[in-house]
Amino acid sequence: xxxxxxxxxxxxxxxxxxxxxxxxxxxxxxxxxxxxxxxxxxxxxxxxxxxxxxxxxxxxxxxxxxxxxxxxxxxxxxxxxxxxxxxxxxxxxxxxxxxxxxxxxxxxxxxxxxxxxxxxxxxxxxxxxxxxxxxxxxxxxxxxxxxxxxxxxxxxxxxxxxxxxxxxxxxxxxxxxxxxxxxxxxxxxxxxxxxxxxxxxxxxxxxxxxxxxxxxxxxxxxxxxxxxxxxxxxxxxxxxxxxxxxxxxxxxxxxxxxxxxxxxxxxxxxxxxxxxxxxxxxxxxxxxxxxxxxxxxxxxxxxxxxxxxxxxxxxxxxxxxxxxxxxxxxxxxxxxxxxxxxxxxxxxxxxxxxxxxxxxxxxxxxxxxxxxxxxxxxxxxxxxxxxxxxxxxxxxxxxxxxxxxxxxxxxxxxxxxxxxxxxxxxxxxxxxxxxxxxxxxxxxxxxxxxxxxxxxxxxxxxxxxxxxxxxxxxxxxxxxxxxxxxxxxxxxxxxxxxxxxxxxxxxxxxxxxxxxxxxxxxxxxxxxxxxxxxxxxxxxxxxxxxxxxxxxxxxxxxxxxxxxxxxxxxxxxxxxxxxxxxxxxxxxxxxxxxxxxxxxxxxxxxxxxxxxxxxxxxxxxxxxxxxxxxxxxxxxxxxxxxxxxxxxxxxxxxxxxxxxxxxxx
Length: 665
Known about the structure:
Elements: E1 6-13, E2 19-28, E3 33-42, E4 50-56, E5 60-61, E6 64-65, E7 71-72, E8 78-85, E9 88-95, E10 100-102, E11 110-116, E12 120-125, H1 129-142, E13 160-162, E14 165-167, E15 169-171, E16 178-180, E17 188-193, E18 198-201, H2 204-214, E19 225-231, E20 237-243, E21 246-253, E22 256-259, E23 269-274, E24 280-287, E25 293-300, E26 305-311, E27 315-317, E28 329-330, E29 334-341, E30 344-352, E31 358-362, H3 366-370, E32 377-382, E33 388-394, E34 406-413, H4 429-434, E35 438-443, H5 454-473, E36 477-486, H6 489-500, E37 504-509, H7 516-522, H8 527-537, H9 546-552, E38 565-570, H10 578-587, E39 591-596, H11 606-625, H12 634-649
Parallel strand pairs: 34-35, 34-36, 36-37, 37-38, 38-39
Antiparallel strand pairs: 1-2, 2-3, 3-4, 5-6, 7-8, 8-9, 9-10, 11-12, 12-17, 13-14, 15-16, 17-18, 19-20, 20-21, 21-22, 23-24, 24-25, 25-26, 27-29, 28-29, 29-30, 30-31, 32-33, 33-35
């Protein structure tokens, strides 16, 4: 049920304020695929939402589906959207009566689109699918030139998936983002005249209009750093600004300039929007001390009054995490939000902007909510320096023997919304707690843009973890049986914890961490990569900064990694890690590694998600509780018994025998 949860994106309201639309996205383990559908409902009525069109396969960016909203026709009779169908991204439209039609048949995937005045559809394309395929074959036959754009350390020919197609990948930009071959080619804008269906190249004026709309409003008039902005067609502008460590809201109406003086406007703001044609800005704040829970406020700009509209226990947004998506869809009377918290799977809420009255529009995950065997509670604590941390704690279900202390699994990074498997979505926290292993998801300490190094962030994280364990020990957690899991930055924190403490009894990592291989596989990216590595991690080439590499790299800290370690890695990343997991394996340390073909940083396929969940659950039950399952997974437990026997005969630390006891060398 955790894997096949329904998510939402694409929240929007029609120009006339009568209708709202959203896209519901479903995972299927049986099909190992995702599907989506567009849903509409009347904002001011009680009628049930109705399916109006097939949304195609979600277009993923990182680990989440892109949350782009549809574009409505000015008369509110149609809305337009991109859809990935049969390996192509084209533009479709659907009427409020449910008539759907595909509009484009372009040889290239549509990157973005907008509606222009004069009943015109403008859209942007790059290289065609055929051109990309031919360029891949040309390289295949002639040999691939290795330069800074080539992702060394993964397959060089069609090793990734893009829009359902196997493609050759290239780096894009300074860091690790990838695109297709020819993905850096200049794009062109085309115009479809909707009445005739004729397609032509955009004029210079049309392209300028398209890029002005698609690029969003200019922030040049906003002092300081504008974190969020909304500029309406009639020229009203609102900005959430961070300047010299202070936050505030600023608005412009005509020639008038306004700054919000209320204390709510100085909080961390997640999104903002003008309320229809009113002189009121609706905005959402995130409360760090409430685990990033959000509240919606309305600012009467001309009278400088702020009132609370809705306070939630979790997210009120348009995506799974804060910052992904534009925020709630705000109209003249209502805000339409995706609401989710640690114990409430995603649902659609309609919030009355005057009364704050909330109505649940769609809750397809209610069955999951009813079947949760464990419930999270928000914890807040301070470390030795007085820094405030928050996290969500799932107490362990007690066994029939009445054991007073339970093992615990923890993960560090991001615990927003409905947590599922932590950040990276790999450890089913509710399932672990139901099995008798308490779970704790710790929110990353908010640095608020402070210029700190990764080492400082690791040390802060470890301080937060240490103080969290002190707290939960008083709530019945056995500090001698602590399991740790980590994804991306969270994996680095897990490694740092291993280097600088004896807390870890068993671990599971979803991504590898810094090694010399990591450096050399990316060094050809040039100065931008190297400067960032030096600035954040203090790392140069391995022979240039050997002391710092010894502090950070697991291959230089093998003696601190003698606990049971499970690694479930993406094929596009795992070649960073053999320089430490192979020596550990050869030494007899209890290490097991699984690699998922084609996978990038996030592993999103539903069957893979289920396999990862199950293996992590089994791993921590085996090492922290001494429990095994039979049936189809019997061979897995036989392997792990041999790992345990080998570790014990070698004198290597191996936590948790069949009675849940621990031993250390």
